[in-house]
Amino acid sequence: MEGGTNRLARLMPWSWPVLLTVLITAPLLAPGYVVGYDLVFVPDLTLRRDLFGVTTALPRAVPSDVVVALLDEVAGGEVLNKLVLVAVPLLAGLGLTALWRELRLGGPLAGAAAATLYMWNPFVAERLRLGAWALLLGYAALPWLVRSALRLRRGEGWVGFLLASALCALTASGGIVGLLVAALILLWPRGSRPGPLVGAVLLNLPWIVAGLARTSAATTDPASVPAFAARDEGYGGAVPSLLTLGGVWNANVVPASRGDLVPLVLAFAMLLASCVGVVLWCRRERLALALVTAAGVALVIAVAGVVAAQPFEWLVAHVPGAGLFRDGQRYLGPLALLESVGFGAAVAALLRFAPLPWLVGATAVLMPIAALPQLVGGGFRVSQYPTDWERARQVLGADSHTGDLMPWPFESYRAPSWNARRPVLDPMPRYFDKPAVVPDELIVGGNRLAGEDPRAAAVANALRTAVRSGADPSPELLRQGIGWIVVDREAGGPPPRQLIPRLTEEYTGTTVTVFRLDGTPAPQHFAPWRVVLVAAAWIAAAAVLVVTLLSALPAVQRVRSRL
Fold it and tell me: Does the structure show a pLDDT above 80 at 331?
């Protein structure tokens, strides 16, 4: 009996993140896909050259698309879609719980308050609605990364550190955050374990090398700085909105309660408590200053587009890669982690003097939920892809005609009826097997922002010239390697044959039409040195990951035996 009681007591702190995950992700039980904005999963993403970053476009989905293409062979796209969304809050909450035990700043009730704030805050809600699943998996890995880095300083192993680093490296911004946090903790004064940090850098090589090896400069439209700058959500300015973990550029994904009186008061109360808790933590452990520094850097990046807009515009227009920081709010992960730990530390201090500690603790645990009730259900709604898309996919796969695919209309986002008119990044380039020329111009606030891919720009310019002058764009499309045009029939725009006369219809369904562009598409060649560099980066990252996974097997077996 006593053994069962002790086991239950050990499991209790871990059950709270599980319960919160259920509250957030319950709608995922319904069959179908959750797609919206950048969240695009398809039944079977084909492993192709362009997914590895051997393309003229910026590696925005490197390496996450390759990971999805491999894993959906095991689980299927629909199941993987839901597993990823469940993993975000679950890993975040369990990671904060594990970190809290490592830090020993208080008891399980204060730890539950810290875990709740890390799982249940505007950053998570807004980024979930934007579909930033790869970024959020990196966010969920941050507590695990900090915990393992602290252990590394004591020489207690490297496997957990590299596993957390791998999750951060799913996307460029997550990789930057992970490397920043890891470097600060491992190299902080009297830290002397840079070895595992080299492994973390190797895990990030796929997106780093793919970006550096592009044939053109990766500069960005300066108009994107104000378009993606942090916004005031009714908290007295962009900076207070960021400090309360909101401020996303897209007003359409901001929870409805943001800026209301009660959530506003609760948000600032939690912020004040977090500040007190961080001071207490720093007085107890000077190494906490490493995370304070990381959070400060994150806040500077997030606010740069607001307080230094003109210098930042010049930077993104002239410095390759600087456009990675135009959406600065996406780097708030270290600040959210610092505030969550600080909130827990403040609650732990309060519980030492409170006359009714359980009541005070329970109130603190529920405060993040009361400040953001819209996160119940996560804003998730499931949809089904049209049935004729699968037939169109079979037609494309069976035809030996060469050339890449071009979606029609040539725009980045859709609001299809099968997705209840919710905006989504065009799924066609992922749904169909052939490599695609993906439009990367964005319309934000009614303004069109130029993309960075010269090939997509050449295609877009040819189509605009055809609209203005009636000139046949087929020669330029063939020069850019286009062999197929797949039409989203409900997305609007002129029929493709109105602009491109040299088309042969291969399939027509209710929602999709497939055309073959008559002629021979020009093969798209890439410099051999570039292919070799990208391949070497992938081999290095894969080698580190394989060694790490093999080394983790004994630890997994030990955990299973304890349960």
Answer: yes
pLDDT of 156: 82
CA distance 176 to 204: 9
Nearest to 142 by CA among 200, 198, 195: 200
Neighbours of 311 (CB within 10 A): 10
What's the one-letter identity of residue 544? V
38-52, 89-103, 203-217, 508-522: which range is least confident on average?
Answer: 203-217
Q: 0.85 exceeded by the pTM?
A: yes
How are beta strands 413-414 and 442-444 bridged, if at all? unpaired
The residue written with tokens 């290095």 in the block is 540
> Can you name the residues that pair with 436 across neighbouring β-strands?
405
Residue 5 banded pLDDT, cuts 50, 70, 90: very low
SS3 56: coil
The tokens describing 391, both together, are 């037939």
Question: What distance, in Å, lies between the first and last C-alpha atoms of the chain?
Answer: 16
* DSSP codes joined into one string, 114-168: HHHHHHSSHHHHHHHHTT-HHHHHHHHHHHHHHHHHHHHHTT--SHHHHHHHHHH
Q: Cβ atoms within 10 A of the Cβ of 190, count?
A: 8
Which is nearest to 215 in space by CA: 55, 322, 63, 324?
55
The H or E element that residue 514 is part of is: strand 512-517
Instruction: Please tell me which residue, 59 or 94, carries the higher pLDDT value.
Output: 94
Give residue 116's pLDDT. 98
pLDDT in tens, 99-133: 999 999 999 999 999 999 999 999 999 999 999 99
Sign of CA dihedral 272, 273, 274, 279: positive
Instruction: Taking residues 413-436, report their average pLDDT.
Output: 94
**CA of residue 349 relative to chain centroid, distance:** 34
- What letter does residue 32 receive in the DSSP assignment? S
Please report, for residues 53, 146, 287, 399, 410, the alpha-carbon distance to residue 151 in angstroms, rounded to integers and kept in the order given: 34, 9, 12, 55, 50
- For 368, counting Cβ atoms within 10 Å of its Cβ (0-12 exposed, 13-18 middle, 19+ buried), the class is buried
d(CA 402, CA 250): 39
For residue 559, CA distances in Å to 545, 552, 553 come to: 21, 11, 10
Domain ranges of the chain: 2-375, 398-517
Going from the C-alpha of 405 to that of each of 59, 205, 563, the distances in angstroms are 18, 28, 50
pLDDT at 216 over 70: no
CA pair distance 273, 292, nearest whole angstrom:
15
Number of continuous H segments (helices) and E segments (strands) in the chain: 23, 8
pLDDT per residue over 12-64, tens digit each? 789 999 999 999 999 998 999 999 999 999 999 999 988 999 888 888 899 99
